[in-house]
Amino acid sequence: MLSWSSKINQIPINVRAITDSSIDPVIPGGVALLRFVDAVLARSAVDISAAVTVVMAELGQAGLVDAAAVIGNFQMMNRVADGTGMPVGAGSRRRHADLIDQLGLDRFDHTDEA
Questions:
Q1: Which residues have a Cβ under 8 Å from the Cβ of 87 and sit 6 or more positions away?
Q2: Burial group, residue 8, by CB count within 10 angstroms (0-12, 13-18, 19+)
Q3: DSSP letter assigned to residue 106
Q4: Which of 7, 15, 86, 92 could pair covalently with 81 via S-S, beta carbons 3.0-4.6 A apart?
Q5: What string of DSSP letters covers 11-51?
Q6: In the chain, which residues have pLDDT < 70?
Q7: pLDDT digits (tens, 9 = 90+) for 79-110
Q8: Which backbone phi and psi does 34 adopt, to 5 degrees?
Q9: Distance CA 98, CA 21 (A)
Q10: Is the pTM value of this prediction over 0.85?
């Protein structure tokens, strides 16, 4: 969804920044957003507080609310998929092969074979 959004809004993005913190994501507030996501996923109250301060400074209250909503939505979608045992289909893997390679996601077992 992020790559599609960047195309529609004509904002360049380096998706490798999602898994490699040494890469600038090139979007406004991108580094702050990545740090916020990492802090939330690590469940570190101190890091979350610091990340919230930076996101607020760079993107404002609306940006913070949007970022938190996106994190919550992705967590929900992942939990539903995991809870139901939903595999990533072969068609999805083929369509997104370049992105899977860029992000190193092939290290996870996404086979739908029993």
A1: 110, 111, 112
A2: exposed
A3: G
A4: 86
A5: ----GGGGT-TTS---STTHHHHHHHHHHHHHT-HHHHHHH
A6: 1-3, 108-114
A7: 787 778 777 777 777 887 888 788 787 776 65
A8: -65, -40
A9: 19
A10: no
